[in-house]
Write a structure and sequence with these properties.
With 370 residues, the chain is mainly beta. Helices cover 14% and strands 38% of the residues. The strands form seven sheets. Strands 3, 4, 5, 6, 7 and 25 form a six-stranded antiparallel beta sheet that branches. A four-stranded antiparallel beta sheet has the order 8-9-10-11, with no helix packed on it. A four-stranded antiparallel beta sheet has the order 12-13-14-15, with no helix packed on it.
Length: 370
């Protein structure tokens, strides 16, 4: 009877339909649950571990981001930390992968890491001292790329800089951009990746006392620039806080302080079109914030803007409707982090850092969960 049933087209169609229903249900589950469900059976393991399932899972979850990000902000929030044998710092995150730099020696090993699965890619070695850097995804060539401005010391030329691009692939080649604009970057020296545009973005000093957005196209590997929403000049007093960029709602975001009285937050609705800069918020100073503190918008959902205060352990919720501020109660900052914490938004996923045949290994870095 089993053989007869297998030859039954209705039975076959039902089996296919059942597989599709199971797949659709699994796509709605959190990544950490899916990791456990790989042990249910071999067919589930094959399905969940496939790259196509991982990509479909991202697209499915992305539609519902921001529904409930933070609950009960008045309750204490646990600090999530990195721990490992080496000292690392985060460069950026892209497509649910985190780019890390091993800073224990001068070899500057750069790797991709999925905190959810605990897997890392084989590292890229970037010799010489890294100044400005950035990480992003070239969707045309399907490559993750790392960009670094390195400083070389030579006998004839004491200090020479060059901008290098390395791709995370089995045989990465080194390409050099002949552009000196990266020498005049301001801020923390990290390029901001804007999803969907394949660009890394920084604010740089144009040389005429003006600040502009410097955009690096990761597909063409060429640079361009466009204006900021405000006509900013070089500071003439020590209280000026440099402007900075981030990403909100997949749009480039600009934030700048004004004479220690308020911050201006604006979104670039259409990438590369300066006329599309739109005011999102004007945030006035608050007694609980340090004088002249630098705010970093992290995430927006509904009428709430999530922000971090640079070089402190403060997280702020700003109500876009009434201008109200709420502060998270974080556990005390560990004594071995005297300068405070840096905050990043990360979404769990099944995306493998072993992109395009790169070998991956189990991570020696992990999250300490509450």
């Amino acid at each position: 009877m089993a053989a007869a049933f297998n030859r039954n087209p209705i039975g076959t169609a039902f089996s296919v339909l059942l597989d599709e229903i199971i797949r659709e249900i699994l796509l709605w589950l959190p990544a950490r649950s899916l990791l456990r469900f790989q042990s249910v059976c071999s067919s589930w393991r094959t399905l969940i571990s496939s790259s196509q399932f991982a990509n479909d899972h991202i697209q499915k979850i992305r539609r519902f981001l921001g529904t409930v990000l933070v609950r009960e902000p008045s309750q204490p929030t646990d600090v999530v930390r990195f721990a490992g044998k080496s000292c690392h710092k985060i460069i950026n995150s892209c497509n649910r992968l985190v780019c890390l730099q091993d800073i224990t020696d001068m070899d500057n090993l750069i790797m991709l890491w999925n905190p959810c699965t605990g897997l890392t890619s084989q590292p890229l070695e970037i010799q010489d001292f890294i100044g400005v850097c950035g990480f992003g995804y070239d969707h045309v060539n399907d490559e993750y790329k790392f960009v670094a401005v390195v400083n070389q010391i030579h006998k004839q030329d004491p200090l020479r800089s060059e901008t290098r691009i390395r791709a995370f692939c089995p045989n990465p080649s080194k390409r050099i951009i002949q552009d000196t604009a990266f020498k005049r970057i301001i801020g923390d020296g990290k390029g901001v990746f804007v999803p969907g545009t394949a660009t890394l973005n920084c604010i740089h000093w144009h040389g005429t006392l003006d600040y502009l957005v410097l955009s690096l196209d990761l597909v063409k590997e060429t640079c361009s620039e466009f204006s900021l929403p405000l006509n900013l000049k070089a500071p003439k007093n020590k209280f000026f806080i440099f402007p900075h960029l981030c990403v909100l709602k997949n749009c480039l975001e600009f934030c700048c302080s004004h004479e220690k009285t308020h911050w201006s937050v604006r979104l670039l609705k259409e990438y590369g079109m300066p006329q599309s800069w739109t005011r999102l918020a004007t945030i006035h100073c608050h007694p609980s914030l340090l004088t002249g503190a630098e705010l970093h918008p992290l995430y927006i959902w509904g009428n709430t803007l999530l922000m971090a205060v640079a070089s402190t352990s403060k997280i702020v919720l700003y109500n876009l409707d009434d201008g109200g501020l709420e502060f998270f109660l974080l556990k005390p900052t560990p004594s071995d982090v005297p300068m405070g914490l840096r905050f990043y938004i990360y979404y769990e996923s099944l995306v493998s850092p072993s992109h395009r045949c790169l070998r991956s290994s189990s991570s020696q870095i992990w999250f300490i969960k509450p």
